[in-house]
């Protein structure tokens, strides 16, 4: 059996790698000789997929932000489509990555009409106020959606798509990591020191729009809490120089973490995370760390979204989206200032009642994210589509 998987950006590569591992594990159990080709990154390659093109370095959100990556994205899409035409897979799996994946899906429906298309982690059309066009496109190209958010499942089911809710794939991954004191021991950190983990960027645009405010907020916090240390995971190697320069200019007592496998430990060790909005927010919640979530795009992109497309969302952070209620503070665009980040950070560091409430809410989030077998459920569904899925799984 040959499966083709398409995803993009750092978080997509992580989700894709977890799925690839489960696909190979379940294929072995079912006696299926499996090959996987993919658009993704190093994590998926390490999990055993043959990577046709690296999409982790060309992700962006917004109009202005996308321009530098337009031609590289189009070239990768063309390469993928040529490959699919010459090497038709038994199944195509799309993971998020809305624009490029809808293009690949439309191509496959036209040229490979007998190949089923399964969307695992569908684009968040169920969140955006102006996303009816994307919803229509998803309906046209998708045979089945494997949903990881309860509201995602309800939304696409109401639009007539065959949907199965599998739970969230991060549960099993995060369950492997220790809590705060043990994480600090493993990282060689002071057990009693105040530690804040900064997660400013997995896309280049985020370095530009988020890093300055986060760095200034960290500087403000350091002026008030002298014995503090900041941990900063480096999402991509090319970001290191910018991060190092910013840390030095702000005079932060910080450690840059280059090993991607240590990122969950750097989160688990923290008293607080100041972070971009994205998949990492759920990792932070599962590791029981309070967080301040921020997001900014180019001012023109934001103006067009608000004025032309009447953009509105109930929440941007996946933690809040999981239960469709406000659990962690999220600061969008003009609210994402160093002053607001500083204020929210001190509140979460010092207000025990608020911290306790977040921990209770995190447990509610964890309760709806499934039993930790999301990837295996998704893998068996994909491998046996359209046959019925067995009631139980073995590991």
Give a topology summary.
Blueprint lengths: L1 E5 L2 H22 L4 E6 L1 H6 L2 E5 L8 H4 L3 H17 L4 E4 L3 H14 L5 E4 L11 H10 L2 E4 L2 H9 L4 E3 L4 H5 L5 H8 L6 E6 L4 H6 L1 H14 L3 E6 L6 H11 L3 E4 L5 H6 L3 E5 L3 H7 L4 E5 L3 H10 L9 H6 L6 E3 L5 H13 L1 H17 L5 H11 L11
Parallel strand pairs: 1-2, 1-4, 2-3, 4-5, 5-6, 6-7, 8-9, 8-11, 9-10, 11-12, 12-13
Detailed description of the structure:
By secondary structure, this protein is an alpha/beta fold. The protein folds into 2 domains: 2-167 and 370-384, Glycogen Phosphorylase B (Rossmann fold, 3-Layer(aba) Sandwich); 173-368, Rossmann fold, CATH 3.40.50. Helices cover 50% and strands 15% of the residues. It has 19 helices and 13 strands. The chain has helices at 9-30, 42-47, 63-66, 70-86, 98-111, 132-141, 150-158, 170-174, 180-187, 204-209, 211-224, 240-250, 263-268, 280-286, 299-308, 318-323, 338-350, 352-368, 374-384; strands spanning 2-6, 35-40, 50-54, 91-94, 117-120, 144-147, 163-165, 194-199, 228-233, 254-257, 272-276, 291-295, 330-332. Strands 3-2-1-4-5-6-7 form a 7-stranded parallel beta sheet, sandwiched between helices. Strand 4, helix 5 and strand 5 (117-120) form a beta-alpha-beta unit. Helix 11 (211-224) packs across helix 17. The protein is globular, with a radius of gyration of 21 Å. The two termini are 20 Å apart. Mean pLDDT is 89; it is low at 388-395.
User: What structural category arises from helix and sheet content?
Assistant: alpha/beta
Mean of all residue-level pLDDT scores? 89
State the CATH class of the largest domain.
Alpha Beta
Number of strands: 13
The CATH superfamily of the largest domain is Glycogen Phosphorylase B
pLDDT below 50 for ≥5 consecutive residues: which ranges? 388-395
Number of domains: 2
Describe the biggest sheet? 7 strands, parallel
What percent of residues are in strands?
A: 15-25%
Global shape: globular
Q: What is the helix fraction of residues, given as a range?
A: 40-55%
* Number of helical stretches of at least 4 residues: 19
Strand order of the largest sheet: 3-2-1-4-5-6-7
Please give the oligomerization state of what you see.
single chain
CATH topology name of the largest domain: Rossmann fold
């Amino acid at each position: 059996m040959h499966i083709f998987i398409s995803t993009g950006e750092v978080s997509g590569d992580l989700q894709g790698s977890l799925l690839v591992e489960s696909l190979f594990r379940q294929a072995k159990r079912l006696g299926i000789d499996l090959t996987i080709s993919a658009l993704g990154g190093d994590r998926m390659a390490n999990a055993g997929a043959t990577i046709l093109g690296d999409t982790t370095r060309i992700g962006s959100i917004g109009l202005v932000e996308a321009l530098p990556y337009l031609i590289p994205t189009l070239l990768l899409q063309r390469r993928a489509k040529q490959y699919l035409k010459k090497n038709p897979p038994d199944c195509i799996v799309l993971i998020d990555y809305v624009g490029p994946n809808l293009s690949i899906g439309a191509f496959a429906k036209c040229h490979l009409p007998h190949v089923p298309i399964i969307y695992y982690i569908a684009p968040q059309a169920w969140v955006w106020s102006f996303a009816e066009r994307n919803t229509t496109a998803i309906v046209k190209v998708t045979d089945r959606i494997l949903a990881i958010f309860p509201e995602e499942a309800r939304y696409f089911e109401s639009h007539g798509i065959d949907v199965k809710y599998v739970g969230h794939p991060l549960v099993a991954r995060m369950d492997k990591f220790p809590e705060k004191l043990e994480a600090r021991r493993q990282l060689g950190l002071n057990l009693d020191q105040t530690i804040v983990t900064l997660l400013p960027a997995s896309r280049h645009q985020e370095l530009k729009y988020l890093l300055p405010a986060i760095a200034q907020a960290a500087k403000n916090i350091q002026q008030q809490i002298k014995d503090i240390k900041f941990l900063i995971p480096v999402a991509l190697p090319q970001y290191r120089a910018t991060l190092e320069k910013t840390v030095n200019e702000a005079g932060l007592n910080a450690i840059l973490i280059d090993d991607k496998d240590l990122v969950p430990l750097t989160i688990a060790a923290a008293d607080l995370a100041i972070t971009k909005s994205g998949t990492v927010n759920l990792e932070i919640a599962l590791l029981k760390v309070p967080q301040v979530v921020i997001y900014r795009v180019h001012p023109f992109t934001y103006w067009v979204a608000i004025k032309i497309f009447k953009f509105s969302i109930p929440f941007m952070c996946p933690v809040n989206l999981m239960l469709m209620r406000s659990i962690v503070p999220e600061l969008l665009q003009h609210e994402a200032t160093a002053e607001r980040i500083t204020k929210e950070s001190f509140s979460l560091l010092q207000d025990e009642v608020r911290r306790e409430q977040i921990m209770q809410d995190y447990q509610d989030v964890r309760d709806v994210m499934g039993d930790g077998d999301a990837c295996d459920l998704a893998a068996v569904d994909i491998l046996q589509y359209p046959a019925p899925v067995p009631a139980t799984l073995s590991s």
